[in-house]
Amino acid sequence: MRHGKISNAKDLIQPITNFRRTEIYSPAAFSLAQVLQEYINSDHPSHGQKIHSHILKTGFEPNVNISIKLLILYLKSSNLSYARQVFDELPRRTCTAYNYMISGYVKHGFVEKSFDLVREMCLANEKPDAYTLSMILKASTSGNAGLSVRGIGREVHAQMVKSDVEDDVLYTGLVYSYVMRKRIEYAGRVFDLMLDRNVFCSTSMITGYMNEARWEDAEDVFEKTREKDVVVYNAMIEGYSKSVEKAKKAIEKYVHMQLLNFRPNISTFASIIGACSLISAFEIGQQVQGQLMKTEFFAHIQIGSALIDMYSKCGQTEDARCIFDHMPKRNVFSWTSMIDGYGKNGNPNESLALFNRMISEGQIVPNYVTFLGALSACAHSGLVSKGREIFESMEKVHSMKPRMEHYACMVDMLGRAGSLNQAFEFVMQMPEKPSSDVWAALLSSCRLHGDVELAKIASNELFKVNTTSRPGAYVALSNTFANAGRWDSVIELREMMKARGVSKGTGFTWVGTDAGFEAFHAGQSL
């Protein structure tokens, strides 16, 4: 705060008492506007509210300039109710005044109020400008926007066309709005109309195309982006890192950006570690960790959790535990990744020991995935009573209603232990209609223990819920029939699969070769 200038506010306020109501353009009023601006620019704008109090006491009628500054003062002080009162008392509400008030509502998360004010603005025959429209777009893509804003992007677009507005910042906001609403075709049309496509706009388009698995379109936008930066590379790497088939390209982009002297940031590292997790690229993951250890990002909790997940999915639980033990701070994702990693790599006892430690320490609250990892560990180790205890504690102790995945895990645990009747009773007593995952878990257990009749019941219920997208269920039932010597049933089931157009793809894995990572399918020779 510039105390030297604001300290004179008292001397400037004093002459107001001598104002007549018509002297609103006097030199003193000009000085008052200066003092208000000083408070607006200060670190404590709320201190300037006493000026408004003095104005009201004296009966002075502020001019439009002073009223606007009072409006800004209250908005900067986060006092929206008083700001709205000043706004409502304006003799004439200009586009600038509307923009300030709309911006204040958007900034503080009052999205619906900002839209109401825009409607009021239009009814008052005050034409929205580019800034107004950009504020509406910003509000429509905020986390506070409800279902009523779905068509806002198109309304803004229509207003731009009607008003013949050509503003690259506004076009960028419109592209981002369409991408966020998953209207990628509309986003593409606006993007194609832009003369100056900035990096932010290109990044939005790449993200939109990546989310729709339109890899070639994303690559085309990337190649045509003249001034690339780390953010646009991150969009490509993150998009590729979410697909098993394209994770290799994420690694290629990661290498390429460094050849061009772009320095990876924390988002880059998180995405590339995710890509390594997806295709179990253990050696590359180690190299990435080596790079990370030379940066300030290595101690970051997000990176530690990502490394634990990557090493666990690569079957390297000792490396994962080493990362876990040396993390300066852990969150629920760190704990959950390690618990789940132990469970999926055949170490259920270590998984449950870590889960029990997490609960006993009480510093971190487990989430739904944490419980899923613990239940899975119980299923693989045959600890049925412990599994029941953990399942029941979700609602009784942690006030977390079990989800369908947890019910499926309980069915799998009971089925693996050979308690098929109990598993079926458990399904029948579920408070919600069982999902295809629940029936698939029961079917898998029936195949394991050769219970043909219960397998038929489970499969029939499964096919009612999901007819075509669970080819593994058809295969499991077919194997159950085959193991029981029911070859007529096997033939009948295969005919049913043909009639429904169900086919199971061949399995594949990623193998490191001299040429890099290659996908090898079942039955294919090296």
Please provide a written account of the structure.
This protein has 526 residues and is mainly α. The chain is built from 30 helices and two strands. Strands 1-2 form a two-stranded antiparallel ribbon. Helix 5 (64-76) packs parallel to helix 7 and helix 13 (199-211) runs parallel beside helix 15 (230-241). The longest helix is centred in the N-terminal third of the chain and has 15 residues, at 27-41. The protein is elongated, with a radius of gyration of 31 Å.
Task: Give a brief description.
The chain is mostly helical. Helix content is 67%, strand content 2%.
Itemize the secondary structure elements and their pairings:
Blueprint: H1 3-6, H2 9-13, H3 27-41, H4 49-58, H5 64-76, H6 80-88, H7 95-107, H8 111-123, H9 130-140, H10 152-163, H11 168-180, H12 184-193, H13 199-211, H14 215-224, H15 230-241, H16 247-259, H17 266-278, H18 282-292, H19 301-313, H20 317-326, H21 332-344, H22 348-361, H23 368-381, H24 384-396, H25 404-416, H26 420-428, H27 436-449, H28 452-465, H29 471-483, H30 487-500, E1 508-513, E2 516-521
Antiparallel strand pairs: 1-2
Helix pairs in contact: 3-5, 5-6, 5-7, 6-7, 7-8, 7-9, 8-9, 9-10, 9-11, 11-12, 11-13, 12-13, 13-14, 13-15, 14-15, 15-16, 15-17, 16-17, 17-18, 17-19, 19-20, 19-21, 20-21, 21-22, 21-23, 22-23, 23-24, 23-25, 24-25, 25-26, 25-27, 26-27, 27-28, 27-29, 28-29, 29-30
Helix content: 55-70%
**What share of the residues does DSSP label as strand, in percent?**
under 5%
Parts with pLDDT < 50 across at least 5 consecutive residues: 1-27
Biggest sheet, spatial arrangement of strands: 1-2
Radius of gyration: 31 Å
Label the overall shape: elongated
Sheet with the most strands, sense and barrel status: 2 strands, antiparallel
Helical stretch count? 30
Number of extended strands: 2
Mean pLDDT metric: 82
Helix/strand structural class: mainly alpha
| Distance N to C terminus | 71 Å
